[in-house]
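chain below, 654 aa
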Amino acid sequence: MSTLHVWLACIAYPITGAVYFERALKQLCRTTTIGPSLSQELLQRLNMGLTPKDLDICTGLNPDMGKIISDTDRSDYPELYLWVETSGDYYPSNLDALPCPKVCYLVDSHINLNIHLEWAKQFDMVFIAQREYLKDFRSRGIRAHWLPLGCDPEVHCRFDVPKIHPVGFVGSIKDGSRRETLLTTLARQVPVHYERCYLNDMALLFSQSQIVFNSAIKNDLNMRVFEAMSTGSLLLTDMARNSGQDELFRNGEDYAVYRDSNICDVAKFYLENNALREQIAERGRRLVHNAHTYAHRIDDLLAVALKGKPDTFSAEELRKQSLAGVPEIDADIPASICISNAGRSFVIPVLDMSPASEYNILTLLDDLADVEGDVIIVFNGQEVAEQLKNHPRITRYAIMKQNIGVARAWNLGFEIAVTPTVFILNADLHVDRAAIYALEQALFTLPDAACVGPQGSFVEYSLARDFIHFDKGTFNTPLEVDAVSGFFFAVRLQHFNEKIIRFENGFTPCYFEEWDLGLQIKRAGLKNYIVPTSAYDHHWSGSIRALREIRFYEKSETAGEILSRNRRMFLNKWHGIANRENNKQLMESGFFAYTASHVQTLVSEERYDDARTCLIEASQLCQDDTIFSTLRRFIDIMASKADEQGQQKDRTTL
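prediction:
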């Protein structure tokens, strides 16, 4: 998307959603703003204390887009025209003259529905902030999608200031309105601070408030919902019916909901329960940052408008995305709130200082210094433990007198962990937070994901070897694989606690743990994924190469001896399981489906020689040629049809 050119049409009004759309768009593509400036009369009336800047292309309120495009150099033509509702009467004419898809974003359908329904007819696609009115647009044959408002974490940020206001509010108050009545009622029992301010000043006031008040005008899911939550103060709001609010957020978990009759009781309850209030507020902040920023909205809009995505995310899908890495609230285990405030844990077995690598446990702890999460170290020996056990970044640790091996160390780490997400890290890994976030997001958004890492493979189980291993930089989209590499991956603690997965202790001290885990996950009907990220570094088998023999318990073996023994154990275990009823397909690799899908993609692009080359390479990795023979015939048939169509076209031309 880096070369995409978007014309963003709006009024030069610095406090509307268009400003945040512009900021998000400029992170992805070339963005040209187009529209009228604010009148001096309106500027004085608004008294914003802000100086609006002129847009890149200045127009009147009703510009003829045919005239504008004719005066524009072809190299500056837009590839997408996005009109965003701001204020005033800005309605360009002759939109059909634009040489690109035309979409609009409508915010106030709850008060401007008839105007919106008429204006929307000018566009190829319409995005609306208020979900309740989708049926009105679609019933008129308008291609409409729900795209709620959001927040900009850089603007709606949490300031590190004392919370000096019990209740704060920023917004308009009309005389005689329900909002005025609610605030007046609340102020009789709780101090309420009100200001008319914008952007960072608004975020500062929210940060200074223990509670931020909100009320919907007409069941609208407004900007303040997301902006207040983004600052980490508790949002106190009414319920906007049919808006999606009740599906996106949970009362008493992510924010607080009042009825008109109990607003004072709700406010006083949360003012009296400081720890609960701040816990809910922090959870709400993490949820909106996970799925409700304007960057998220722009990604979804562009995917639907230009990439063929059939619809924007539903409330259920947004809820799932927002929960990535956020601890669950379990009413049956109230003590769990006190165990850990972290959303993730890092389990790291440590045997030595990784002499064969430039990285070791000390460099890894430095990498994790500013990354939120519990660090759980399982020391597989006392010598290193005595050096490091008091390291400030280590949250919890266990010290083994002897090396108990990787699988047992992982199991012990999982028994100690109390967070929804658990990462397994090798001590000789160098990792950036971007890789951690990428894996965590994928774990909670990819279908049926149970284990996610940056590298993995398709496995030829019968010969205990890889068909193909995906290293860093060798793939650019998430892939479902047979097994994820064990030096860095993430799983859900829930699956461990429910005994869906558990690391096989029999593979002590090392080897085959990842393949075994991958098959456990497949047996449970779940999936292993690899996710493209380059924000890490790891040297394979560094620790093992540094040792002539590996000591564990009272034994000492070479790497080759361990590999041979554990290979036999792996094959015996899984061949026996696969032969049981309902497990016959368990050890079939996803390599064949991956190859078939890739070949079909190449054929659809009429890249027949590339498809044949792909098959040749795949067949060299696999002795079973049945599926590849079918694919060869498929390629030949499609290539033959393409040749015939080309010849017919040539004859028609002649």
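Confidence is low (pLDDT under 50) at residues 331-338. Residues 591-653 form one domain.
thats it, cya
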